[in-house]
Amino acid sequence: MSSAQDPAEIPGADACANYLKALADPHRLQIIRALQQGAMSVSDIALLLELEIANASHHLRVLYHAQIVKTHKDGKFVYYEVNPAFLKSKAASSFDFGCCQFDLRNLE
Q1: Is the full-model pTM beyond 0.70?
Q2: Locate the HTH arsR-type domain: which residues (predicted)?
Q3: I need a surface site. Which of 25, 41, 97, 105 has the fewest CB within 10 A?
Q4: What's the mean pLDDT in 96-107?
């Protein structure tokens, strides 16, 4: 049985739809899986997923605007990481957006 959440803390329908829309792409789900291993640059992600840098950048921008990933700068490089506010635990593949939860363990 899950614990009840304060309704004031549950995102509205628009916020929930934005999270789901941002995740409604196979490449973005693969990016999230990759970022669970640690922060990565656009170039790292493009190389890992065999994407053009422009395509990887586009997908990261969508995830960033949905606040699913956050960034930090190290010198001239920008690194992306999963927003820890949505992780159910540090090592988990489970995400909790308040309006919905999902698990990426079985993602191929």
Answers
A1: yes
A2: 8-102
A3: 105
A4: 72
Could you tell me the domains of the chain? Answer: 12-103 (1.10.10.10)
pLDDT digits (tens, 9 = 90+) for 31-83: 998 998 899 999 999 999 999 999 999 999 999 999 999 999 999 999 999 99
Helix, strand, coil shares of the chain, percent, nearest 5, are 45, 20, 35
**Rg of the chain's alpha carbons, rounded to an integer?**
14
Q: What is the token pair recorded at 105?
A: 């363990």
Count, in order, helices (H) and strands (E) of the chain.
Answer: 4, 5
List the beta bridge partners of residue 41. Answer: 79
